[in-house]
Structures are given as C-alpha cells and as structure tokens.
Amino acid sequence: MNYTVQPGDSLSKIALKLLGPSGTWQDMLRFNPDISDPNLIYAGQSLYIPDDALVSTAASSAPSSGTAATSSLSTNELLYLAAGLIVLGAVLFIPKKKDKLKAQAA
Fold first, then answer.
1. Is the alpha carbon torsion for 21, 27, 29, 31 positive or negative?
2. Quick one: pLDDT band at residue 92, thresholds 50, 70, 90?
3. Distance, CA of 51 to CA of 81 (rounded, Å)
4. Strand, helix or coil for residue 4
5. What is the DSSP letter of 22?
6. Is 24 exposed, middle or buried (0-12, 13-18, 19+ CB in 10 A)?
7. pLDDT, tens digit, for every residue of 34-83?
8. What own/partner pairs with CB < 8 Å and gap ≥ 24 does 14-20 have?
C-alpha cells in the first residue's frame, strides 16, 4: 500500500495509524529506505507500507472480549465533554430556592 503524507504527519503518527500500537517510526523507515532523515518528511510524499504490516481497521475498531475500547475523541473534545459534565452536575445539585428556605426555617 502507498500512503500519502498529510500535513502534520510524522513517521511515528503514520506508524501508529497504519501499523497499530506496536508500529514504530523505525518500521516506517525500514519500509522506506530512501528516506535519509526520518524527521524530514513532507506533505504529499508517498510512503510504502507492506499490506501484511497493516492493521485491519475492522479488527482494530472492534475490541475483543476482555479488552477496553479506546476513544477516538480528540483532547479538545474530551475537555469539552468533561466541562459539560461538570456544568450538568452543578445544575443538578443546586438546591432549589424553596429547599433553601425550608432549611433556613428549620
């Protein structure tokens, strides 16, 4: 398979995306010996990855039994979600004015 480098890609990111958690930038370099400096790849560059090295997207997206599923949310999405849950929790646990008055009267 040939992969076209996208802006922001690095050999490590590409290895993780296509080879899975055990893939390394060294693997990518081994598959592409014409790369003289692993820190210098550019958008539009074509990289070769052997088909037998690729992680199956069907197998990697469906967790096996006893394995926790991983999130595909970005850091910002997780932060927004956490902030929303905190706000929701605050709204749910704010005592109503009537409840405050009862507590003060007692």
1. negative
2. low
3. 37
4. strand
5. T
6. middle
7. 999 989 999 999 999 998 888 865 344 444 444 444 556 567 666 667 66
8. 14/47, 18/49, 18/53, 18/54, 18/55, 19/49, 19/53, 19/54, 19/55, 20/55, 20/60
Q: SS3 for 43?
A: coil
User: pTM higher than 0.70 for the full model?
Assistant: no
Residue 53 in tokens:
């090295």
Please name the residue ranges forming H helices in 20-69: 25-31, 57-61
| CB atoms inside a 10 Å sphere around CB 17 | 14
Instruction: Say if residues 38 and 29 touch (Cβ distance below 8 Å).
Output: yes
Q: First-to-last CA distance in the chain?
A: 74
